[in-house]
Known about the structure:
The structure is a homodimer. Chain A is mostly helical. Helices cover 66% and strands 0% of the residues of chain A. Chain A starts with 10 loop residues before the first helix and ends in a 21-residue tail after the last helix. Chains A and B meet through helix 7, helix 8, helix 9 and helix 10 of A and helix 7, helix 8, helix 9 and helix 10 of B. Chain A binds a DNA duplex through helix 3.
Amino acid sequence: MTTSSPIPRDSEAKLQLILRVSSQVFADRGFEATSVRDISSAAGVSLSGLYYYFESKQHLLYLIQSATFTFVLESLKSRLEGLTDPAERLRLLVLNHIEYFLTHPNEMKVLSHEEDALEDPYREKVQAIKRRYYALAREIFDSLTAIGLARGINPRIAVLSLFGMINWPYKWYKPGVDPDAQELTAAIVGIFLHGVLPAGRAAAYGSGVAAIGQG
Amino acid sequence: MTTSSPIPRDSEAKLQLILRVSSQVFADRGFEATSVRDISSAAGVSLSGLYYYFESKQHLLYLIQSATFTFVLESLKSRLEGLTDPAERLRLLVLNHIEYFLTHPNEMKVLSHEEDALEDPYREKVQAIKRRYYALAREIFDSLTAIGLARGINPRIAVLSLFGMINWPYKWYKPGVDPDAQELTAAIVGIFLHGVLPAGRAAAYGSGVAAIGQG
DNA sequence: AAAGTTGTCGAACGATCGTTCGAGACCAAA
DNA sequence: TTTGGTCTCGAACGATCGTTCGACAACTTT
């Protein structure tokens, strides 16, 4: 559906460029504060020329958020295939999220920060992906509970707190200062599973993740 | 400086009303998407009449963020006085933050979400408060480390992950569905200190917070 | 060569934006 | 009663916004 039918020239590649540049500008200035003219000059395409690629500014935001979120979710599902250990699945959820954030910080900031800026025909579609993402995380957490009996913590609070840890980096992460994806993932998973305090002895859980904590 | 000198009528009270109403509108629609006319009609004050109370839309945002952040920080410092137990100090940091969020969700959303919307004369002043808040949290965490030897986790990552957990609720918290401040605080502090997995035995730390976790 | 599709653009549309200005009402001190 | 702050407002300013339109070059297919 993308590379056939009525003979596109290089339309698809240019759309990707526009999406990438737009994410950059939206991440820097914010969606509402960015004018279509800003995108025009940043992308090197005339103002009216942009409207060949998207129908409205809202639609442009939707294209960015939808593509980003879909990729993150599908990528996670693919990496999760065949894996059954709940702790390792949780680690992969965090790693997948953090890795995509480190390689595509602009897109992830737009996804996290401009969630409310999207209006209702588009908004609901992105929220649907978000619900699937949450459901998957919740499922992982619940199977973790089933194995390890996770201290009776409210599972909704637990999962959303984990989301807080993995989404918040867009506010503070500095490349060069802060650690890479593996190490950041290890720290976050370590906190979430074992907390910050030293385990009196090794935690009762015997998976490979038990050795994480330190980079 | 607020209630003397050149005879104010009820100016201060009306300013507080405008700040409260503006926070509501900013929280609902976002700062950039909100027009001064929106605030005018929501506050029941004419468009030009608003400019008696603030110099610009930017200044209005600054007044909200500055007052909110100052209150949260000063309130925390006051509650921390005389308390030396690091874990209890950390619990109070979280509780103070969550409590203010639950009683002033609009102001806290504006503070968290519209951080970048503030421009540079004002921006720096709010960031200065933010740095003091972070420094205090970092100090608490470091003393926690000094006592409990907190598993060699990168302290910057740990503190910022904790901030992620306590700031993220503005995206998901639903009154009536989600637990109150005490319980939410207990859950977050429990995750941060002990993690989600059951301690093999009681954690090596012997404070009153050890019993938290469950509401 | 003709017809049709793809991609690009300048110019302009009406709407809305933040802010300013001058005038006037209300009220306390002189 | 006059003077001078305090507070409020309608009307208007220039600037900028998202979007549309018609024209046109480039290229592929008939």
